[in-house]
Amino acid sequence: MRRSLASLFLSLLVVSSLAASTLPALLQKAKDQFRMGAFVQSLETLDALEQESRKEGHENDRTKLTPVLAFYRAASYASLGRGPQAREQFEIFLAFQPDVELDPAVYSKKVVAALAEARKTLRARGQEPAPPGGNTLVLAYNAFRRPTVQSDENLGDDWAEGPVRYLLTADERRQYARLLDPVTRSEFVTAFWKDRDPRPETASNEFKDEFDRRVAFADSRFTQSETRGSLTDRGMVFLLLGPPTYVGRKPLTSGDDANDSSALFRFRRSDVRIAAQPIGSRKDQVARIDRVTGPGSTVNDAASNWREVWHYRREHLPAGVPYLQVDFDFVTKQGYGENVLQRETQVLDTLDRAKNKLRDTKA
Fold first, then answer.
1. Among 115-119, 208-212, 255-259, which stretch is predicted with the lowest mean pLDDT?
2. 45/26 Cα distance (integer angstroms)
3. Helices 136-143/206-221 angle, 10° precision
4. Domain containing residue 67
5. Angle at which helices 39-53 and 59-79 pack, to 10 degrees?
6. Is residue 61 in a domain?
7. Residue 306 pairs with which residues in a beta bridge?
8. Is the pLDDT of residue 152 over 70?
9. Spatial CB neighbours of 50, under 8 Å, sequence gap ≥ 6
10. Is this structure's pTM higher than 0.85?
11. Order of strands across the sheet with 246-251?
12. Residue 182 contacts by C-beta under 8 Å, 6 or more apart in sequence?
């Protein structure tokens, strides 16, 4: 039996569970504006709510808010007669609640019809909506909208070391390094993106738009300490391949680490070699070795050590990749690193093929 929308919001989102008081206040404001027929204002408040939820510490709230934002955006767009935008948002919403029904006594015919049309469109594509859980990363990316205000592109030395590093060929990197003034660098960058435009006859560059969207998403979701998200291992894989088919995560226990089959060591083998160097007295050397190999050098705290695996099925891999599925294994372990990609043969081969495809100016 299909669930009512009232049941949906009771089970999916309890406003009081949101961490910051500004979030429920903004959500309530958007809902009140929608009920009063102030649809444009409601959309503006929803945008403010989304921006607020992107602040540090609201990670759990973003997940809870995703279907709610999609629903009220869709309903507002439908009420304004903006059908395509309404259907797009309802498609995101249906990924979370495929069986929901709207009460025609509460919602207008336009809203009810837009939801029905979105469901019909998904079925026509063979994309029958399914409940989330297998791939919240795909759902989050589908719901992600790039910030409307973008900072100017930095064309200094750092440009080639930014996310575009995954696209630059060795020759292009050398060419850019030889350019010293802003004008020639700007011309280089313009030509760089133009060469990769799949439809130069149109005003937009679909390739650049998608790449920039992936960068913005990675920066908002995968940032680690001082490293921006698009430059982490997970960010690199996301930029090159897009969202995975599905994601798995579990605690890292003894035997799970291919480089450490007996226990979870805090220190790497290189640390042991350095400690064993004949520097200082013999007593100092023994103390150094004991610190990296003795008691306390192993970790078995599952809360601080885990594996996150991104599974890519063949249909989500670049053309020419000869594997039915490639798994990207990210390991987090004390003394080892955070979300470190395990660079196995299939993984490296797939990434190389993805880079070559994206670097192909005919792509």
1. 255-259
2. 7
3. 120
4. 5-132
5. 160
6. yes
7. 251, 332
8. no
9. 65, 69, 145
10. no
11. 246-251, 306-313, 325-333, 337-341
12. 155
